[in-house]
Amino acid sequence: MTLPLADSLKGRLIVSCQAPPGDPMRQTDTLVRMTRAAEAGGAAAVRVNEPEVVAAAVAAVDVPVIGLWKDGDTGVYITPTVRHALALVEAGAAVVAADATARPRPDGSTFAELVEAVHAAGALVMADVSTFDEGRAAAAQGADFVGTTLSGYVPGTPRQTAPDLALVADLAAAIPVPVIAEGRIATPQQAAQALAAGALSVVVGTAITAPTALTRAFVAGLTS
Ligand SMILES: CC(=O)N[C@H](C=O)[C@@H](O)[C@H](O)[C@H](O)COP(=O)(O)O
């Protein structure tokens, strides 16, 4: 059985509307305007950080809101605990995105417990993984979507500059839940390649919604 939400995302773009701590764009109204711009441009869903922004985005757009809650920047920081996950459901997230890497969670919960709690509260779960084994485990633990979000970002693993399309293809061929390509997708061509590799849907963040990082890249290009 496919979920109605999965049908609405199939072959389409999800825009991640986030800004890092200290960035001038990190303001709820600004982030919500990004979600409205994404919707106006044809995005099938938006992905936003923190309950306050989730609640404001849910009120502002008609497309589904994927919520995450980044807490800290080391270890498990994307929706690290059941408490964070349930706060996102409370704020109206249709899908809760959470770290499903093979690392201990700060509240001692398992990923399966987080999935169970989110499902009981009435929302779906996107598992943010970094490897094939984590993706397979997340699917077995009940995740509704598996995203390649954390590939290249787990300490001790190689940093990458290109999207991990091999991971998208390997997971799409092996697991029974939809795979969402996310991370370093910088061009429409790469987004199309991710779909061709088997992704249900593609998340793009920096290349659309991060003027500070994009400006830095142009500045670096002029001086290198
Ligand atoms: C690793 C991590 O914390 N990723 C975060 C997850 O929500 C965001 O910082 C990324 O911007 C997002 O995944 C989209 O990726 P990109 O910005 O490369 O299109």
Automatic annotation (TrEMBL):
Molecular function terms, GO-annotated: N-acylglucosamine-6-phosphate 2-epimerase activity
Kindly give the InterPro entries that the UniProt entry links to this protein: Aldolase_TIM, NanE, RibuloseP-bd_barrel
Q: What metabolic or biological pathway is this protein involved in?
A: Amino-sugar metabolism; N-acetylneuraminate degradation; D-fructose 6-phosphate from N-acetylneuraminate: step 3/5
One Gene Ontology cellular component: cytosol
Question: Looking at the record's lineage, which domain of life comes first?
Answer: Bacteria
Q: In the UniProt record, does the keyword Isomerase occur?
A: yes
What name does UniProt use for this protein? Answer: Putative N-acetylmannosamine-6-phosphate 2-epimerase
Organism in which the protein naturally occurs: Streptomyces prasinopilosus
